[in-house]
């Protein structure tokens, strides 16, 4: 047999020792760290025991046990399993984390490890070895994992654990174990190999000690000193603290008064700032954290698409809102980047001046961002006097200090247009692949990057004339000379600041490849003029110029702009941008600022996103693929819903894709069914039963547990947002409302409401429980809801920027309806559907009449289909049928869209089911459910229509028939008053048939059958 | 209790009846004679080894089953959507040429894996993603046909015809 292992893997000795003890011949194959052995895997799982060709054991414990079993050396397999499973789930994860040095930062690690050792110690109290008086496979596996700890100095984890110490002594002196471990540490590079191996393998995350380690948890003494500052407290510690203070249900005693006080008032500190009023002009304060947030300047002549929006402006917005709520002193600036060739050309195309183009587009950008609720302190532009002044000043300082070089470069110039041609305005034959239509910067044929002057037969894109090569003098920033300054700045901010992985990697790769002088002038007219004599017909290159826009925009905001920009001691700067902009913000711009020696504030934190794709292709203005800012508005979907979804799939560590399908799905499953549902229920009960008054509360054990869990989420949320992990923050918020929903589900206030007055007293526990979270809203809610709460349902404005559920602005039910309709319109243009459905049942006669009409019409359609009538005519009749069904549903008080598109008209029974769960107190939810379905279904329908022709007509007909027969059967058993179980069984098979039918028809089955799974969870 | 744990426990309770107890979150199987097995992983391994429903494996296959049981209860606890994707991809690869996880028959590894993947399939994966992990989806659909395994969990729907083929090429 073979064992594949990387050098220094501390799990490998498990297998080696097992092999020796069982006299198995083993061939050791050393591979690289991170190498994949089993062909299916997507992560390295070393060591791997190859039992025979194609059979790999990648679990070292299983591999070791296998060797023992094969040699018939295991007596009680269950007993061995108990320790082996414990080892890989409770000991190895904290051990690996500890060895990786995570114990220093994260208390969870050392606590879990201590708990595991405690368990081991007590297991060894009665017997010499783990499972008896001889060395077993368990001893080997546990010991090998523990062995690295023995070599550590100053490790007090083993102190006082006498049984473990005794056992370790025995094990390390074992005649088989000792040579293997000696060999493991013998090599000169043993220590490095060990570390490299450790960090190359994936280990399960450390979880909080489970109940099994309960004694250990209770033993640990409550100490406040272990709790770091509020912000840094890890989630676990946070929970742990409650345990120690006696708030957590695990603990036997509990001081209710203190508990409530602490729980209520500690987690949210520092006090939230919910005062939205902004000062006239915000300046750094000496007694506050001053945060300067910038979002990459969008280029003016493009309408921003959703990818641009989440990439910079929205991310910056969310972070700055969060920071404001945390009472930091925040300035958020951005603006349009307006200079450059592209603007010049666009202006020429439209026959206007560049300034006019910029004015037009700046206005458009402004409108779009306003619609998306991007809360800038200042959204400016780069074509201002301040820009010229500051850019030229920075240039002069660099020039005086010798950081500007002069050199000449060859450029293409069109004599006809009398201008130098930017790369993308030249076309010609590719010198590499002879493709005819290559652009100056890149060949679309072979995809290679090109130099414009290398093109064969270059042509000016505008006039098709042949340009000439002209040698032209230009200015360069001497980046190599600035490099030491930049490096020392980066070293310090990389250490102290928040830099996303991609920002670090891109910056490092630029520096590693060596910086080269960078040309900062261009032969253009539309730009900031170069002030140096001899170069006055040139302008600055946009990438020298554009970041200076942050300064000039601030200067247009306040004349004291230097208090922000020349104040590195007090100001922390956060740049939000897409990954393509990283080098300009992390290398070129900081170098220029540092080179002036003017004490500028230079970026401390850089938050770069990856790309957002559109339905698996790229957003593209030219091909009109994607959703652009102005189109988003016309869909009628509220901006907050877009904000929610964009943040939900913010491309933080890899590219993500916007898809309409998923958009609907997440809106329904998360925003409506989770968050919306939670808030709606809580408020509906509050207002229906207690007239909106929060009741006096008495917290039970369960309540406190919930508060602890919510606090934990909230704490993680705060930590996530502090580290700019906006996407994870959303998950925390959704988790909080999920907890709320579960809690409500478990406590069933709608049942309690019908109970005795005493029970009634406890009824409204859920809502006051969330009083703290929603406190800032109570006044507003009362105002909005007092009087006629039943007609309105609150909806979360999807403003994810605020900590947890603080900023829950209620909106009307109509708004949800409008959204539903708008999405539907957008995807299907089905204007005939009434959006807000009147769910009042009509008279029985009307229902009967319509039922009959539906049945007749259904027959007619079937006959026509059978007779193979013209498709157009069939379609007409089907339309009539659908309309009839809608009418019928309305008459029955159901949401028509939830059922009409289903099958051939026999789903009356089931459609009723969708609403049964929604009766009484749960009404609001039921209604919303239907809308969710409606939306979802419409999205799906569109998709199928686009996908086309996959529908198997024969299958559909067969299934339709089966559904109809099964429907009859169900009616029969019901009529015969059969046993409930019989009826249920028949109904279940009917539903299954319908689902299959829906799938065959290309519809979403969950909609057709009335949302089975989701519904069950509700109840 | 999270869905996978609950469903696993329901299954084990249905299998072992009254000898399975769960005083805490961790189930304990009473073997009689003062012996017991605790923890889902160990109980599952015990079940695979002793139950007549799951016989006919050689030692190597049984070890493979055991390591997939460990995998299901450790690695498949998703921390975030990215690691979830990675795991799904890996499992999809594994099942590329297999009907079940091990030995082309239903084993406890399939059962435990099924519960641990259920919520991903029921709540998080879109039709498009289900299609992307086509082998895993096929396996899942296959396993859920077994009523004893599926218990009261909702029967999930899978599209019979791939509809996203064209989109994925980009």
From TrEMBL, chain A:
Signal sequence, start to end: none
Domain of life of the source: Eukaryota
Record carries keyword Endoplasmic reticulum: no
Gene3D superfamilies in UniProt: 1.20.1050.10, Glutaredoxin, HUPs, Isoleucyl-tRNA Synthetase, Domain 1, Methionyl-tRNA synthetase, Zn-domain, S15/NS1, RNA-binding
Keywords: Aminoacyl-tRNA synthetase, ATP-binding, Cytoplasm, Ligase, Nucleotide-binding, Protein biosynthesis, RNA-binding
Subcellular location: Cytoplasm
CDD domains for this protein: MetRS_core (cd00814), MetRS_RNA (cd00939)
EC top class named in words: ligase
Region (Disordered): 824-844, 888-949
Record's compositionally biased regions (Gly residues): 912-923
Any single Gene Ontology cellular-component annotation: aminoacyl-tRNA synthetase multienzyme complex
Catalyzed reaction equations: tRNA(Met) + L-methionine + ATP = L-methionyl-tRNA(Met) + AMP + diphosphate
All residue ranges annotated as the WHEP-TRS domain in the record: 846-902, 955-1011
Pfam families: GST_C (PF00043), GST_N_5 (PF18485), tRNA-synt_1g (PF09334), WHEP-TRS (PF00458)
SMART domains to which the protein is assigned, alphabetical: WHEP-TRS
Annotated GST C-terminal domain residues: 73-189
Gene Ontology BP annotations: methionyl-tRNA aminoacylation
Similarity section: Belongs to the class-I aminoacyl-tRNA synthetase family.
Protein name as catalogued: Methionine--tRNA ligase, cytoplasmic
Gene source species: Elysia marginata
Species lineage: Eukaryota, Metazoa, Spiralia, Lophotrochozoa, Mollusca
From TrEMBL, chain B:
Keyword NAD: no
Entry keywords, A to Z: Elongation factor, Protein biosynthesis
Assigned GO CC terms: aminoacyl-tRNA synthetase multienzyme complex; cytoplasm; nucleus
A molecular-function term among this protein's GO annotations: translation elongation factor activity
SUPFAM superfamilies, A to Z: GST C-terminal domain-like (SSF47616)
Protein biosynthesis recorded as keyword: yes
UniProt GO BP: positive regulation of DNA damage response, signal transduction by p53 class mediator
Protein name: Eukaryotic translation elongation factor 1 epsilon-1
